[in-house]
Amino acid sequence: MAYDATKLKDYQIAELAEANMPTPGQWREKLGLEKDEVIPYGRICKLDFMKIIDRLRNRPNGKYINVTAITPTPLGEGKTTTTLGLVEGLGKRGMNVGAAIRQPSGGPTMNIKGTAAGGGNALAIPMTEFSLGLTGDINDIMNAHNLGMVALNARMQHERNYSDEELAKRNLRRLDIDPTNVQWNWVIDFCAQGLRKIIMGIGGRTDGYMMESKFNIAVSSELMAILAVARDLQDLRERIGKIIVAYDKKGNPVTTEDLEVAGAMTAFMRNTINPTLISTAEYQPVLVHAGPFANIAIGQSSIIADRIALKMFDYHVTESGFAADIGFEKFWNVKCRFSGLVPNVSVITTTIRALKMHGGGPKVVPGRPLPEEYTRQNLELLEKGIANLLHHINIVKKSGVIPVVCINAFYTDTKEEIAMVRRYAEQAGARCALSEHWLKGGEGALELADAVIDACNEKVDFKYLYPLEMPLRQRVELIAKEVYGADGVSWTPEAEAKAKMFESNPAYADFATMMVKTHLSLSHDPNLKGVPKGWVLPVRDVLVFAGAKFLCPMTGSIMMMPGTGSDPAFRRIDVDTTTGKVLGLF
Amino acid sequence: MAYDATKLKDYQIAELAEANMPTPGQWREKLGLEKDEVIPYGRICKLDFMKIIDRLRNRPNGKYINVTAITPTPLGEGKTTTTLGLVEGLGKRGMNVGAAIRQPSGGPTMNIKGTAAGGGNALAIPMTEFSLGLTGDINDIMNAHNLGMVALNARMQHERNYSDEELAKRNLRRLDIDPTNVQWNWVIDFCAQGLRKIIMGIGGRTDGYMMESKFNIAVSSELMAILAVARDLQDLRERIGKIIVAYDKKGNPVTTEDLEVAGAMTAFMRNTINPTLISTAEYQPVLVHAGPFANIAIGQSSIIADRIALKMFDYHVTESGFAADIGFEKFWNVKCRFSGLVPNVSVITTTIRALKMHGGGPKVVPGRPLPEEYTRQNLELLEKGIANLLHHINIVKKSGVIPVVCINAFYTDTKEEIAMVRRYAEQAGARCALSEHWLKGGEGALELADAVIDACNEKVDFKYLYPLEMPLRQRVELIAKEVYGADGVSWTPEAEAKAKMFESNPAYADFATMMVKTHLSLSHDPNLKGVPKGWVLPVRDVLVFAGAKFLCPMTGSIMMMPGTGSDPAFRRIDVDTTTGKVLGLF
């Protein structure tokens, strides 16, 4: 029986569902895991990745289901909700099913957006743990990341203060770091716009090395990217050692290994290798692992989580951040390439609301009431906006995957509106299902579950958009044209110079292309809705993540540190001091 | 049977001992706890404070044993080792015993000092968890602290950018924060000297508010101080709301409650209320809770940990940071006053090495070999240095407690040296015991255990050094003269003006005096060893911790952010990627 989502708030549903949530011991029995493979952390637990992958190494993989979306409104279109609802629906059909999602960042949770636990009857529980730090992975990443910066700045101070002889006494060689070419920064997991640009090291000889620096949000850390793509602990350790933190005065890279801090950084991240296990409101298992944003990073839960989930479950649902132009493109050309795994199907989450916005509906602003266009039937706006959905269907089809369009139902949607979306989606060659998981949980997601089961029986001729041999600028051009629908790409002189260097240096030959772009438009301009035409993608810089093996073309004005608004969520959060419960999460 | 500490390194002893360490479930049986009172976190667990204190509320308290020390060398004189050894010794005598210690900071652990897990057979295990983050309390404090600063700086930005009308639309009133009088800062739990002073908010209208700011080490956070002194969750919540983060342009305090962030900060700290349970190498229980430095903060494990430990154990040993002039003085006049608890005895940890240094021995430098004076018999230096021990004995006696001097044995100590210390200590009215817990574990600490048991039978006429009615400057004068042995106190004009303000404002009437002073000398000058004479204590500022209810006179040049040296511990730390074990901790 589903909870009455029209009357109960999410945290109330969470509290009711949490009363019967499986304990770590019950999960162990339910999932057939061995004793040592479940590591309890209070009400939740981590799974021992290395033990499980070793024990199940000969078991065939389950079906691999990706969830993506159309270009969302700033409110989000319920991709996590759909992921959880689909798992619940497959569960109602008696399938052995699980999911992998990302850990939410404290930034959005404390700012405007709130938590990312899904909603209604398609909810991730326990909601407090999920929303506030889980089993500590982001903290571990933050500490490991900042330790790297401590090592870097302290080393610059000591090299400034000491002669070569004095350094040699401490068994240190001069790295001769170029203070104008420092790549590494600090991280914090809040929206701290005041730390976007800082001057540090103000003071005397022993107060560090004075330089410009910055804090990015922790989930944009290269360490988060590495956690998302590492295959195992050894791979994690090796990648951490290859991170380029700066360049020396001759232009050679200086790495964490050069700073002799890569081992200690890995020590801080030793537990992050193990995914956390939580639950849907209907008690289906959900792995939470890694939490990179999709506009500035890979935006996927981890390869590690998918690897064990595909061994543990017959149907495994994994979420890609934001819309198919970003989330699915990175899933397809980066995550699957790195993992070698092939998806059976991709679900494109769609709402009538977002399609109307793409058709020219008024601006949707978080925290303000929705304009009438979105709450009453409006087939004109909808029909115009469907172009955005069709574009995303085509993106997915280019990978060889036939998508399932999921209409994530709102109570204001009309039958005519739903029928129109369905007609266009099916004409474009996709399956389509209406899903009411928010209202009804798994019972509401049966149509979606059946469409997905059906799609999983099809053979997929999966092919990457580009081979790794393709030079960087050509790849970016291909992504811009084929995925975003641009006419071409323009490069700033700095970005082009960097791109040429990466293309000519064999050290970067097997690096993936990790686009950095807004999720609010197919283009780089968040104001251009629908399917923008006649535009050119501007690349202003190319970052290198040598540990993750990403070359990151930066398009538009994406920030690595969001800002806290004037009416942030933290205003409404508190603790009941008699019960210890957290109040006000939403 | 003790491990051979002369051959095995600490991490090797830890690994051997950890093989048979009690699981969370076994601890529950051993300590007679209820199921819900033990909250597992991997191999270790937290104890549910509120449930345990409620269930055992009518049980009489056990004996309350404090451990302090003489003025240490920069190497430390084994106070944690003695705490753990004493617990093991009392355990060997068949007593129901436990301890409370502080969580180590990542700063020293990654820098020169290494971990603070004790050593030899008096070791805290599991060592990796203990050294690297435990159950996340410091991370929770760091996040809660930094969220406060995010709220403060974002509010300053929005108040600058918006009119009163625009603020009112968001239900915000203008706090009118004085940017030149911001008290709150950022924290990070490493020795990041480059962040001691920063300029933040560089950029445009939406890049925060530009101002000078700083990062302190996380363990110096007022939130850590609050965790150490809070009696329960409600007290924690109330104290967090009273933190003064800045003053407005009229000079009125602006608090976290004014920023509407105190509830969310408490939400991040909701789990910190529960102490973590770990083990000695001989499987006696050790609570780890709070981790403030003693030179810049209260330097004690928490009141909460002591409250449940005194209910759970017949003998409870709690450690005070650094020497009796700092650690014991704060235990005596702040912690015990806030908790209402009365100690039965205080153990003064002493080493022959440190006494020789106080007698005029050469400088002791971490990472360099010990000069010969410390490794061969030298009764002359020793006899001169004993004055420091006698001074600390007198400090403890002023509280009404008769101390037990523990000579923490080194293999280079001679019989004559030990006999000399014993003679002086006993002449001064203290009990004295030689203890070889490092070498022999509990068997080596039986003499100490017996002396402590004996001392616990004495009636204690416990009295504070000063009543809270005494004005601030008079209190500081009293502490300087009676505890440190100064001739008087000098105040900078700024410090004196602040002191006068605090004295005249009834809001601060029940605040404790929390001295900030180096631990390396009885004076404010770390170079003055022994018992410095003819000096005046300089107070350069007075900080206010309105949530913790501390007024903190800052003496000498104590820094709230240590620096990372040129040969830090992180250079030698790594992870074995086949076993997942952390290597190189010491």
TrEMBL record, chains A, B:
Which biological pathway?
One-carbon metabolism; tetrahydrofolate interconversion
Task: Spell out the molecular function terms from Gene Ontology.
Answer: ATP binding; formate-tetrahydrofolate ligase activity
Which residues are recorded as binding ATP? T73, P74, L75, G76, E77, G78, K79, T80
A single GO BP annotation from the record? tetrahydrofolate interconversion
E.C. number(s) listed in UniProt: 6.3.4.3
Q: Which reaction does it catalyse?
A: (6S)-5,6,7,8-tetrahydrofolate + formate + ATP = (6R)-10-formyltetrahydrofolate + ADP + phosphate
- InterPro entries with a match to the protein in the record: Formate_THF_ligase, P-loop_NTPase
Keywords, A to Z? ATP-binding, Ligase, Nucleotide-binding, One-carbon metabolism
Give the UniProt family note.
Answer: Belongs to the formate--tetrahydrofolate ligase family.
Give the protein's recorded name: Formate--tetrahydrofolate ligase
Q: Which organism is it from?
A: Desulfotomaculum nigrificans (strain DSM 14880 / VKM B-2319 / CO-1-SRB)
- The gene name reads fhs
